Amino acid sequence: MKFRIAVQKDEDGIFVAECPILPGCISQGNNRKEALVNIQDAIKGYLESLKKHNEPIPHK
Q1: Tens of pLDDT along 18-53?
Q2: b/e map of 24-55 (b: 16 or more CB within 10 Å)?
Q3: Which of 12, 14, 48, 54 is most buried, by CB atoms within 10 Å?
Q4: Rounded distance, CA 45 to CA 47, Å?
């Protein structure tokens, strides 16, 4: 399953990654690559939580 990711550099130079379809699924990193790795981990945890609580996975 693929999800759209938005990555922006904040005013402190930290890269913030967000998965808009998964509310509150946000992570960060010191560079773009690290932020992408971290958001993938956050998405995995988010999906595991949805499954554990028998919640539907949001779709586009």
Answers
A1: 999 999 999 999 999 999 999 999 999 999 999 999
A2: ebbbbbeeeeebeebbeebbeebbeeeeeeee
A3: 14
A4: 5
